[in-house]
Amino acid sequence: MSAQMIDVRSDTVTRPTPAMLEAMLRADVGDDVYGEDETVNALQSAAAKLFGHEAALFCPTGTMTNQIGLKVHLRPGDEVICHALAHVYLYEGGGIAANCGASVRLLHGQNGRFTAADVRANINNRDDAHLPWTRVVSIENTVNKGGGSCWDLQEIERIRAVCDEHDLALHLDGARLFNALVARNESPRDYGRLFDTISICLSKGLGAPAGSLLIGSKKLIAQAHRYRKLMGGGMRQSGYIAAAGLYALENNVSRLQQDHARAKRLEAELRTLPYVESVLPVETNIVIFNLSASLQPDVFLQRLGHQQVRALSMGQQLIRFVFHLNIDDTHTDALIAALRSI
């Protein structure tokens, strides 16, 4: 990829900034498998405190933190409730089946969200031996395939009440949670009080090169530590990566509103283009739109590529653009010019 390429396939394509690299070089490290990496310990402690929880666990990827987060709640034969667009269901390699031996009850709702009433209506009777035991509800915020849609906090509170009533755990796939927090002017503790386990990703909008965190109680994180080992997720001098995560949490959260503003600007432009059939409402940094039948996605992406733009097809006529810290106003101008020329 050339230096001039505008890459809006994902917010995972970011490069560490010079200041982040400097923080990584200065990191105090040790062997994290022995619990001796000071920077990893600092990151885990800071994340737990941020959400008002007792503990956190640093892992290589968000898929691992999600899968471990579900596994600490599930037994083989149990069932997870999630949305049909959920990342834990669609994009984690069948991990719920492979890692947990659990089945999935899929809900449907607007742009990846469902209601407390939906949850209540889909909880199995535990006295019926024919049915899997409903054990966990999993929420994704923001919803990737929902166009970066944000959940309503009051609806999550109602879902929490249903979970408490029926002895269900509540897990948050918060890969892009900080985008939701910035967009809705909410705090991490608003979510920490509602969820048993929270997965947050440092390598998306926050701009770290790798790493995710699972947050929860000491008891659950102790179990999670064992499952991380089982999955091969034990790292050694991982403080160099953890330092990037600490830097990201301290410096790259408030700037997410810039990504959101650029995404809204692009949304307005797309609604004027003759080859765009529809655009999902933009709340954060993700823009998903439908091409008209007259323009095939591979042709569209090829034409963008000729103008130094890389985007992503999400199947059928769906295209995704994601804004991030390596896309500024000048890049956005060039992106809009490229779209107008097609």
Overall mean pLDDT score? 97
Spans of 5+ residues with little confidence (pLDDT < 50)? Answer: none
Order of helices and strands: EHHEHEHHEHEHEHHEEHHHEEHEEEH
Structural class: alpha/beta
Distance between the termini: 21 Å
Characterize the main sheet.
Answer: 7 strands, mixed
Description:
This protein is α/β, with parallel strands linked by helices and 342 residues long. The protein is built from 14 helices and 13 strands. It is globular. The two termini are 21 Å apart. The mean pLDDT is 97.
Outline the secondary-structure elements.
Blueprint: E1 6-7, H1 18-25, H2 38-51, E2 55-59, H3 62-71, E3 78-83, H4 87-90, H5 95-100, E4 103-107, H6 116-121, E5 133-140, H7 153-165, E6 169-174, H8 177-184, H9 188-192, E7 197-201, E8 212-216, H10 218-230, H11 239-251, H12 256-270, E9 276-279, E10 286-291, H13 297-306, E11 309-310, E12 312-313, E13 318-322, H14 329-340
Parallel strand pairs: 1-11, 3-4, 3-5, 5-6, 6-7
Antiparallel strand pairs: 2-8, 7-8, 9-10, 10-13, 12-13
List the keywords:
single chain; 342 residues; alpha/beta; seven-stranded mixed beta sheet; four-stranded antiparallel beta sheet; 18% strand; globular
Question: Short summary of the structure?
Answer:
The chain has 342 residues and is of the alpha/beta class. The protein has helices at 18-25, 38-51, 62-71, 87-90, 95-100, 116-121, 153-165, 177-184, 188-192, 218-230, 239-251, 256-270, 297-306, 329-340; strands at residues 6-7, 55-59, 78-83, 103-107, 133-140, 169-174, 197-201, 212-216, 276-279, 286-291, 309-310, 312-313, 318-322.
